[in-house]
Amino acid sequence: MPITLLWAVDVYGRVYSLSTAGQRWVRADDLLLELKRVTAGKGRCWGIGCDHHIYLNIMPSETSIRYREETYENQRWNPVDGFTDVLLPTDRWPWSDVTGMNPQPLHSFQLPSCSWEWEGDWYVDQSCGEPGQTGGWEYAVDFPANFSPDKKWNSCVRRRRWIRYRRYTAQGTWAKIPLDSPKKPPLPLCDISCGGWEMSDQSGRYPYLWGVSQQGQVWFREGIHPRVPEGTSWEEVEVPREVAQLSAGPGDLLWALLWDGNLLVRTGLSLDSPTGISWLEVESPSKEVEALHVAVGVSVVWVVTKDFKVWFRRGVNSHNPCGSGWISIGGEMMMVDVGLNDQVWAVGEDRGLYFRMGVTQAEPSGNGWIPVSAQWGINKELIPPRDECEFSGHLTETSQGSAPSGTDSDSEEVKQPSSASQQDAPKAFIPASDSFINSLVSDRDRTSTTQPSITEMPQEDGVELPPAPVLPTLPATGHDVPFMNVDLEGAGAARSAQAAGRSLSDVLGTLENSQGIGEEDGPVWAWVSGGGCDVDASSRISWLSSTGPLSSSLSLTPVQSAAWSEQPQKPQHQEITRKPLERSNVSKVPYQSVWVRKGALRWWRDWKPQRWVDVGVALEQSTKSDGRKDSIFFVYYTQYDEKKYLQVFINEVTALVPVLQDCHYTFAVYTAERTKQRWPLILAAPSGKEMNDWLDLLSDCCCEWRGIAGAPTKQALWSTTSKGDIMVHEPPLSLEAAAHPLACDLMFWRQIPGHLRCIESNSLGLVWGIGWDGTAWVYSGSFGRQPSSGNARPSVNPEIHLQTDVRSVHVYENQRWNPMTGYTDKGLPTDRPMWSDESGLKECTKCSTHPPSPQWSWVSEWAVDFSVPGGTDKEGWQYAADFPTTFHGHKTMKDFVRRRRWTRRCKITVRGPWKMVPPIHLSDISLMPCLTQSKMEQVPVWALSDKGDVLCRLGVSPQNPAGSSWLHVGTDQPFKSISIGGANQVWAIARDGAVFYRGSVSPQNPAGECWYHIPSPPRQNLRQLSVGRTSVFAVDDNGNLWYRQGLTPSYPQGSAWELISNNVTKVSVGPLDQVWIIAEGVPGFPTETPGSVCHRLGVGPMAPKGLSWDYGIGGGWEHISVRGNSAEPLRGPVPPPGGPSRSPALQRPAAQ
């Protein structure tokens, strides 16, 4: 790590530096130099002197700073004298710059300041042509034209360049920056800030310098360059109101403090526009107390208010320079400064220097304050925390309404201390050149504060007091000099506070042999700048580790600082994890902190043309003083060279779902508003591990905020997506309330590890699922979260199992017949692609078709699929009259098109809380729903094999969820859907669409006795059904939802089918007869991916068919099961949710 410096100014205006490789403070060589404040950057430090001049200190370097001055000598040829400096009136100047527009004779060049010296005299640049032959001349036909070293017959003008170098000689010393001339210089400056050397779009650039005048104007120093470190001139930047102080970060952040305590943020800062575009106003962290000081870094903003409280700004980024909110940080500071690596330095209320411990990119707010303890004075004694020094007491009543003064003083007068002992001398004022310090005490009533004299302090008997030196005072106490004086009432308070613990001779012992005010008694700091100090949280700096850490939750008064530092400190082993650092302290008072996780993803942008955009993302979590946590997810992008951002509050996230899109590792972030708009935030990660890490992290924050932890409850709603992911929702009691039910778009879904095609549950906690390959899986009752790959210890959870799934991917080969060649792949212009998906709308070839997601891998080659519904010929072809019609497996005279399906198998392997139930592969499964108070020794489970056989699982119970064996139930044809409802009602659908009811099913006879045929709806072929406690719903091949009327205990088969709605793919009826479906689409959003969760509203004993639909999360959902939610809704009126009415019946279009 390179050796860098920490700069500080004490209240006397003396400037000190502290090296990261050293152990003691070093005062500036110029003992007469007095500065008000300093601002440091890489390799340099700027300061404001008491004479209102700007000073610059460039760090010594082996490479000298040289600047080349150049001017051009121009001549024109005439027939009499040849080439001469007598030019035409329209020509350029005889001596000019390269453009010829500005005159530049040799004698006009002057050194910009006394910090420069000439290296030599002017000489001709001989780089053109052969050295010594052309004399450095370049020839052309006329001005302006292209010059060349070759003289031709038509060369009528010529020029040559003169060069002279000057060298900067003030490296390592404080050099005065000259006032602008002939331009008007700014009014006397009261604040400066250096920054901008690490612009986000290009690093390693030269720094920028900003200043604030005493009249509240903002100025920008132009022309700062590596070869021109002083800059050239000042440019005024318009501000809406008067500014008191500002801070520029190493990047493109600039914040300013107004005189009224509010803050301004400069937007549009860039290399092309170093002064920015506009100002935005940000309110002070506290409405009651005004802001006093602001400091910014690369992506952080810190503020101190007039009650000395420290605040941290959340969400600050170059895309969002204003941030999103304030977090209160422990400690009582007078000013803070943000240095390199966003490290934070501060001057405490006790005038000591402090460093913010634990500041990292993951935790930018840090986790504690530690004092800066370095050797001081000629005795090389270690500077302890300020509570051990003379000026260690509290500053008296803090300023509540002070504002920086608008004037400054040009001089500073100090009286020499009297040699005579003066016991009744009043408390002294310590002069300082600092407008910031003066603002702290400008509103104090000095006359109303009674200062104790030395004789009033308690003394021990027999102790003889030595003569006490008198600290210097101002000539007239009734005339305050603004920006120059500091009322250190804390010095008197410190003496009074510590007199009870030690004798007066101990307190004043450091003053007896003092050589000068403040020389031996330790520094009384007024300002610190760490912009040039390269340290971070892992740095091992001797003067940052001499004392223990100070808890950030403590108020850093000297007494508490001393109490903390006296306690034995345990070594801190910091490790950056994915979760916020949790710490405890002796005071048992929780502190506020901010934790950040950043990364780079790709975003499927919201507007057209839609495409993938590289973005930066950040998850920021803040911990409140009461332990509560809230998080914000940011997405930073650039549009037309303008930096923008999106923010999603974690408490508004309703689902985090992996999705299928362009074979990326893609996931979608849903909120209630984005669910209504049917446009989730879609992000893609470069790898599967990174996607899983972000999903786990975001899901943990969502669950933590909602108070959800561990395995799903027995009442949970289960669902699967078309990708095979398993989602769970914990239902509140208001989900099925008759009045003001929970809207579907507000439901929070979380992911459970595993991979299934369909899933079923009941209220006893039993959950069964079926994979795409037909394998049956039973839920083991664990949450199933895998440990991160970075964890060296393997998982010891016995409920986590290896789960595999296999599915087939299909493409269709299409052909058309013509009389010349027969069937060929040359179709009509209006035909579907010759290689397509089943719908024929999307072109899919064998080469361009990939597994459903990168988690899948191929396990077979492409082959013709002969098991296509409708049958095939011996080559796998199906025939039809045209596209699209119904295909059949034999050719007729009217068949002019044909197709065949190619298939390829792929496999996925995951780990989750699922145990395989061998050996039969299933196509459908159903568990009997029951109420919460139900007691059953064995739970009826019915299933269908992949061949259509009906099975009944025996021995299933909460203690043995997998059961013991399968019992075959005889049928005369294969079935495709089955469901068991309340009172052991078993309904099933055969593959030909016929509906059957199983009679005499009971706990004593779990397989029943016989099947009763139920007529299907007219001209409809049912494909799936679900049976609740007293109702039966079914879905046909056309997506229509049917309700079975007339079900009674005496006649459980019902009487007739009634059409309820269309646009349905799956239906699930719960133990309370609640109805949920997977809708094909949402009305008004035709482009959305099929598969949306939908809730039937108004279902009750008097209205079993319900009234309307409430559409929830959607786009790629495959299956839902609500058969475990048996929680009865609250009786009586339920207060509606806050905000405008969200009644789905009034705002949602009904699916008719």
Automatic annotation (TrEMBL):
Gene source species: Poecilia formosa
Residue ranges, compositional bias (Basic and acidic residues): 572-581
Region described as Disordered: 391-428, 441-476, 561-581, 1124-1152
Similarity comment text for this entry: Belongs to the TECPR1 family.
GO biological process: autophagy
UniProt key word Repeat: yes
Domain PH: 595-705
The protein's name: Tectonin beta-propeller repeat-containing protein 1
Annotated Peroxin/Ferlin domain residues: 64-125, 136-169, 804-865, 876-909
One Pfam family per UniProt: Hyd_WA
GO molecular function: lipid binding
Subcellular location per the Swiss-Prot or TrEMBL entry: Cytoplasmic vesicle, Autophagosome membrane; Lysosome membrane
Entry keyword Transmembrane: no
A single cellular component GO annotation: autophagosome membrane
UniProt keywords, alphabetically: Autophagy, Cytoplasmic vesicle, Lipid-binding, Lysosome, Membrane, Repeat
Biased composition range(s): Polar residues: 395-408, 561-571
Lineage, highest ranks first: Eukaryota, Metazoa, Chordata, Craniata, Vertebrata
Alphabetical list of InterPro entries matching this protein: Beta-propeller_rpt_TECPR, Peroxin/Ferlin, PH_domain, TECPR1-like_DysF, Tectonin_beta-prop
